[in-house]
Known about the structure:
The complex is a heterodimer. By secondary structure, chain A is mainly alpha-helical. Chain A is 75% helix and 0% strand.
Amino acid sequence: MVGFLLYLTGRLLYALTVLVGVTSLAFGLIHLSGDPLAGLVPPGSSPEQRAALATRFGLDQSLPHQYGLFLTRAVRGDFGESWRQRQPALEAVLDRMPATLALAAVAVALAVVAGGALGVLAGARAGGITDRLVRGLALAAQAVPGFLLGTLLILVFAVWLHWFPSSGRGGARALVLPAIALAAYPAATIARLLRVGLIEAMTADYVRTARGKGLAAGVIVWRHALRNAVLPALAFVGVQIGFLLGGAVVIEAVFAYPGAGQLALSAVADRDLPVIQAFVVVLATLIVVVNLAVDGVARWLDPRVAANDGGVSRGRWPWR
Amino acid sequence: MAVALKWDVARTGEGALHRVRPVARGVTRPTIGPLRRRRASGPSVGLLLVGAIVIVAVLGPLLVPSSPAAQDLVNRLQPPIGFGGTTAHPLGTDALGRDLLARAVMGARLSLAIGLAATVGAGLIGIALGLIAGYSRGIVDRLVTWMIDVQMAIPFVVVAIAIAAALRPGMATVLATLVLTAWVGYARVVRLQTHSLRAAPWVEAARSLGVGRMWLLARHLLPNLVGPILVIASQQVAAMVLYEAALSYLGLGVGGNTITWGGMIADGQESITTAWWVSLVPGAALALMILAWNLLGDAAATGRYHWSSNRRMTRSDIKETNA
Lengths: 320, 323
């Protein structure tokens, strides 16, 4: 227990340094162009107007000074006022986050359930007809990008069949198509990982012993083999949550879904830099926290993980 | 002699090459009945598909009769052959009457060029950092690991949004975005592999002979990592192609008048209710390209090609890396 707490403290401190890195990167990327105001200042405005804007946003200070200010403010959750909306940038992002999180959560659930079921079906009888079908399906799902799948889904289920709305606005029904588009890729990968894990587990000695004891095939798969096959898929799910949050941005664009990704994309068009910085840091914080939680759970589930864990970052893939 | 020894070590797993990822091993292990697989010797489906795509992309303009930019306003939104179209436009036309076949072929050129360039660029950075981190350990290793973790906390699209907010759209911006995201994939694997090869007897031997660090990394360690690196690279191309298409789709891509599959799919969505082919022709081309590289990557990862046989991994390894 003490060991676990020590480990947790170490991971937490390390996660904080990662977030400092992310925040710095957000600052650095935004200032890559050298002139953050380019594109914000209307063409033909006088140097005085320019200077006034620069002073207002604190851009007349030296870059190290701006950086220091940015970091100390970011720690307090202050990314400044949005340049386009009369609202703090962080607030603008957080207002939209619930919609994005709902989409990502439904997609994760869908990927785990569908991918898990298909993976078990395929892995339990490797080489069979189900296995071949699942493998083909997974290969296809990994080849079709989410935004293309989204377009297809709109065409078939919204335009032709009228089963679901084509836009992401309006209740739970509107969430179905975007969630499927987002879940397809991780579901395919989960199915593949679980299948391989299960096939390997089914050749293990303890499965042979279980067979020798005369246990039913279902019991062997569910109670014995699956427990050992599930870890790589679980690790993947953890990392996927970050991937999904990024993918959600694209899917939101396909379905005009009112989430944080849409906000960020319009912020790019508007060159609303504070909103973009807040968006980057909020998303990265979420991902770091989720990964921390997954690491903790994996460690708690599988004692072997702790034995192999050598230090920084190896915690992410502890069983490798 | 020395070279032979190195490959022996790598092949027999003395350097823990096979122990790094137990997950993937079951795939090719011949003891598993239903999955028993002969080591195939001929080219895989993936390799053939990739070859065909490369030929189409290289020959590009020679293969298609019409110009991809020529507008034919009389023949707007013509369907492909089989859906009421004519041989004049085998895959139909878009809202401006431009030939979709010609545009899809031009899109292949850009997609492939950016995919390969980004893969190589990210490879150079990732391999260098991975080698240095894996060999030095200590503070340098920690620093590179930290950089990897920072990068992995920011999803690709988010990096793209931040860069797009700062830089002008264009080829260089897209490449920078892709490279900045993808180096991690190489760095992680190369770092782990270098770590495990570090203690190999032939590395010890070279070190005790007084070989310099750079020479050791470049001439002794790197050649042993060629297999895994090529496996990652073949898998990375698919990811880079997909990312470039996503960027173009979102309007964060190369921009200008450049023909991209992602841009074509986005354009076609305006007329999706009446002319589905405008989106789905480039969409099918994109899916085929990704499928081809995925298949090639799978074949490489399971040790199908001799250059990849000293290290086995699942394709999901690399996808996870890109998360």
